[in-house]
Amino acid sequence: MTFATGAIVANLYYAQPLEATLAEHFGASSGAVGAALTIIQVAYAVGLATLVPLGDLLQRRRLVMTVLAVTVAGLVVAATAPSLAVLASAFAVVGVTSVAAQVLVPFAAQLARPGEEGRTVGTVMSGLLIGVLVARVVSGLVADWLGWRAVFVLGAVLTAVCAVALWRALPVVAPPVRMSYPRLLGSVLGLVRDQPVLRLRMVYGATSYASFGALWTSIGFLLAGPPFHLADAQIGLFALFGVAGALMARFAGRLADRGLTHLTTGAALALTAASFVLVYLGAHSLVVLAVGIVVFDMALQACHITNQNVVFPLAPEARSRLNTAYMTSYFVGGATGSGLSAGMYAAHGWTGVVVVGAAFPALGFLVWLGESITRGRSGSGVRPAAAATRA
Fold first, then answer.
1. Is residue 186 over pLDDT 50?
2. Is 387 in contact with 260 (CB distance < 8 Å)?
3. What is the C-alpha separation between 175 and 54, in angstroms, rounded?
């Protein structure tokens, strides 16, 4: 499941380093290719809202297999696309169906042994993070060696292999609920309304991931310009420093199993904001920038894994819908940070990006302080691991 989540989510990012190549091949403007790349992200958001909740209504093993079969078909179309319009349509299919990774994460939490939910989710999420980061590097290298179409062929093969492996390995588990599809979708809003802890975790996730969008949207401009002047391949390899976050994912899961979710969240939000001091100083030093990125990604993943370990047990029969609510807010936060980053870099350079990147987790930390004060007044402290997920 760890490998599969990484391979599946990588499908969302293979095209990003290929923008110039695709524009040249199809004779299209960078704006047109950029719009095609945006489609895959928008489609992913649609999949989060419409397909992930089905994990509570349908047998998850069969759902994952069906969705991945469509993903493979979309990647094959992308690899053979005769025009940019066909490629964009294939991207839409791949984006919607790549949410299979978000069906697997709550499934892993369900299958985990008691007391090991945090470690299990952290392990699976480490695969997802590595997939996000490595996809860009693999795409650039494969495209240079075999051409851009080979990138999507590789994606189709890996996804098909994962589908077969999951079909053989995953257990058949009966769906936890029975209701109509419209009612299922409506119940997601009901969970947001009825679960104050879910709302808090949505805020923590959105504010932390907004900083991710801010940093990685504009860092390419920084690295390509003076004083670094890095080539595209070097910029892609630079993203590998973020793999350090994968190491934190499993550790954060262990902390969650020990009932330290509240303290871990506050420390992670504060460290995410503070890491932008190093990111700012890194405008003149690749070493300092790399250290800043390592600290940033480790703190970001600690917050994310902790959030998921708090959210999933809130309603065990609704894990997929809880994940839908949380991941939708997470994605919206990332998109917001990304959009603001582009504008701030154009107007104020790297300083503007740093301000945006640090402001969001700082806001999340202030919300966490407010929660801490409320908890103190109500006399609630750090609870044992079994109860901490509800704290």
1. yes
2. no
3. 9
> Rounded distance, CA 179 to CA 304, Å?
30
**pLDDT value for 194:** 95
CA Rg, the chain, in Å? 20
| DSSP string for residues in 340-375 | HHHHHHHHHHHHHHHHHHHHHHHHHHHHHHHHHHHH
pLDDT in tens, 335-386: 888 888 878 988 899 999 999 999 999 999 999 999 999 888 776 544 433 3
pLDDT digits (tens, 9 = 90+) for 102-129: 999 889 888 888 888 878 888 888 888 8
Is residue 153 within 8 A of residue 262, CB to CB? The reply is no
Nearest to 67 by CA among 107, 40, 108, 97: 97
Task: For residues 353 and 169, give the distance between their C-alpha atoms in angstroms, rounded to a whole number.
Answer: 44
Q: Which amino acid is at 44?
A: Y
Over residues 303-310, mean pLDDT: 91
pLDDT at residue number 133: 79
Q: What are the boundaries of each domain within the chain?
A: 1-175, 182-391
Amino acid at 305: I
Give ∠ CA 326-328-330 in degrees, rounded to 5: 70
Q: Are 390 and 313 in contact (CB under 8 A)?
A: yes
Whether residue 227 has a cis bond before it, omega within 30° of 0: yes
Q: How confident is the model at residue 144 (pLDDT cuts 50, 70, 90)?
A: confident
CATH 1.10.20.10 fits 1-175, yes or no: no
CATH number of 182-391: 1.20.1250.20
Is there a common fold for 1-175 and 182-391?
A: yes
Measuring CA to CA, which residue among 292, 301, 302, 269 is closest to residue 350?
Answer: 292
| Backbone angle region of 349, left / alpha / beta, with phi > 0 → left and psi within -120 to 50 → alpha | left
